[in-house]
Amino acid sequence: MTASLAGSKIQVAVVGGSGYAGFETIRWLLRHPHVEISGLYGPPDELGPIDGFFPLLSKQLPMRQELFDIAKISRSAELVLLCVPHKVAMGYVPKLREAGLKVIDFSADYRLKDPAVYEKWYCPHTDVGRLAEAVYGLPEFYRDAIANAQLIANPGCYPTCSVLALGPLLKEGLIAADGIIVNAISGVSGAGRRPNQKYHFPDRNENFEPYAVGTHRHAPEIRQVLSAIAAKEVSLTFVPHLCPMDRGMLCSIYAQSVKESVTSEKLTDVLNDYYGNAAFVRVRTEVLPAVKYVVHTNFCDVAARMVNGRVIIFSALDNLVKGASGQAIQNMNIMYGWDETTGLI
Ligand SMILES: NC(=O)c1ccc[n+]([C@@H]2O[C@H](COP(=O)([O-])OP(=O)(O)OC[C@H]3O[C@@H](n4cnc5c(N)ncnc54)[C@H](OP(=O)(O)O)[C@@H]3O)[C@@H](O)[C@H]2O)c1
Predict the structure, then answer these.
(1) Domains along the chain with CATH numbers
(2) Residues of the chain whose pLDDT is less than 50?
């Protein structure tokens, strides 16, 4: 359906509305002046009034989550925000695209360009033909391509936090493309809403631990994107940690300077030059990036310092916002030619 059939607003369907990323997406969509939520779709065990899943939505969205129905979605929406896990997403995308719908996919299914790399880290890819169509939805690097995209691969939260920190410095050749260490921490909502023992309160509270060291699925995504930005192979060690906070993400990143003359001021200048017009990246100097200064916003804060001959870069964002739903809304704004900040500030 076109926007004109439903008035002037774009009709947007959310699939996976009862997940954490789906919930955040609903909240941003409700505040957006140019869109309406046309429907919510979930799996058989997650149907019913959406405020039954998220009581905070009572009197804000009197809508039921229904079973995925391609005929209904294609009649009532023109854009679908797909907030479902990997593998599930690539089952839906072919149907949605064949029905002519624009899609922003939150999962990893269309982020990795090489199906062999995807298979190594996830599972065999079942929609290889569409990988080339997907545009990596990191506006600060791919804004022009996003504007013309029909299928967006919304980046992962760790990749967003890492790439926004490292991208400009690698692009300008200020840091070596090898030997980079990304030390990252995430709040527990990064693991999604479905409970398991590992995320049980007594196990998680007051506990701070590394996990998936050397095996985290976001490492190949970070490498792929940074290698494309640097125009050379980037190698890095990615060390994620789980922190007992609901949401938020902080990266402390260590890299080698390639020029002896590099100073903290020079690093900051390069970040400022690159992000001067970026609405959602704030280059910090005195106050370093911290989770409390970015949660519930679409901002990513970055800062760089030269310490004892080593470059240290910090970045912080909200995994559910700039790391997922906010970035998707930012991408939607660009796709529809609206101001990038619409509904987000
Ligand atoms: N959480 C984050 O910080 C974050 C950041 C960036 C990207 N993402 C990505 O965003 C997506 C959603 O993540 P999340 O954290 O919101 O996970 P989540 O809380 O587990 O939500 C996923 C939702 O999708 C539903 N779902 C599963 N299979 C489905 C199907 N066949 N049809 C419709 N809905 C289905 C799930 O229902 P069940 O629980 O019943 O399976 C759940 O409600 C994932 O691809 C994730 O990688 C998440």
Answers:
(1) 3-133 (3.40.50.720), 158-319 (3.30.360.10)
(2) 1-6
